[in-house]
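Listing 4. Sequential folding, example run.
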Amino acid sequence: MKIYVGNMPYSVTSEELSEMFGAHGHVSEANVIVDFESGRSKGFGFVEMPNDTEANEAINALNSSQMSGRTLRVSQARPRTDRGDRGDRGDRGGNRGGWRR
């Protein structure tokens, strides 16, 4: 099961995320999502646990728990939706209120 973990402190690493969930069962993968340009954490990540029973126990145990003064949001991840071609930004937001002749 893929698990979403949100509202994490920006200092959390993928290894720490894996250890946190590893206390509740086998973790096959843990990733903190980072900003492409800055390399800094975006404050959320995903954990993959192959055993659904262990995954649900981890969700129940860790959702709304505190980590460095932040309340974690932990839930089953929703399927990713297609957001279109993100490589071509086109004219979205190109003219931000300026006069155009």
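-- end of first protein; second protein begins --
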Amino acid sequence: MKKLAWVLFIWLLFNAVASAQVKYSNEFLNIGAGARLMGMGGAGTAYVDDVTAGYWNPSRLIDIPGKLDFSLMHSEYFAGLAKLDYGGAAFKLDPVSAIGLSFVRFAVDDIPNTLELIDLEGNIRYDRITTFSAADMGILFSYARKMKIPGLQTGANIKLIYRHTGEFAKAWGFGIDAAASYSLADWHFSAVARDITGTFNAWSFKKDLLSQSFALTGNELPVNSLEVTIPRLILGASRDFKINDQVRLALAFDTHLTFDGRRHVILPVGPVGIDPYIGGELKFSTWLFARVGFGNFQLVPGMNGKNNLTLQPNIGLGIQYRNIYLDYALSDVGDLSIARYSNLISLRYVVK
């Protein structure tokens, strides 16, 4: 009876959040983490088996190959204007459980602050220009556990969000992810519910720093507000194929289901948006990995009045030397989508 009550509570909360008036927020947590899966186009929530599972699918955190697993990633977007950094650590508590900690930061730094450019006498003073950062940061606390049913694993994230725009505005947020995975021979399946309770960001503004400039430009002062990130469901599947004793191939497929009815996806069904991701990894021996993936499928109206299919292709390369992994990914190869290409590099170390 208690389980039924909890299921009913979560369902009612899910519908209440989905039907509320929301804003897009915390999109920086949907970019990705680790060059390995980014080289596979963002597919692989059912396939990931390293420390980045704390970001992609916490239920797979128990599959890290050693006792400890660490990773760092850096990437730049928009010709270096914006930077994405990731750091993660995972620790296996025992054969059936593991914990993890992930940190994600997406920021534009060194933005000129020209609010004090003109002094009280009307003079332009370039020495009064300062700089600030607009940064989004998230900390994910992860837990994974093997269940008594063979092949079944569950996991969850508790997310703390901090976002700020210089001294002018800041927001604190909180959310929860839940996940489950099931493995059968060379097949892996997963379901990840992000922001299952809705992730709430409470914004506050320092109006005394903005009032004068906003009044001169005729803009309205922002007010303290609440942003809600509605739930997203990711269903994944992957399979390993043995080509010979030295070569193995893994194929992965993810489907993102969003419920706000506002996203430009390839397959909208009422308020539900269906967004597929496809990727693969080719393993040569135990030290070389080649990856490719496709995501961001969209139908874009063309000049001829017909819809044209666009997508974002990614490629990646990985090298392993003993317990050290170096991964590289290039997103949007050939610039076939609207987003510009980006280079991603991540370094990983495993303690056996």
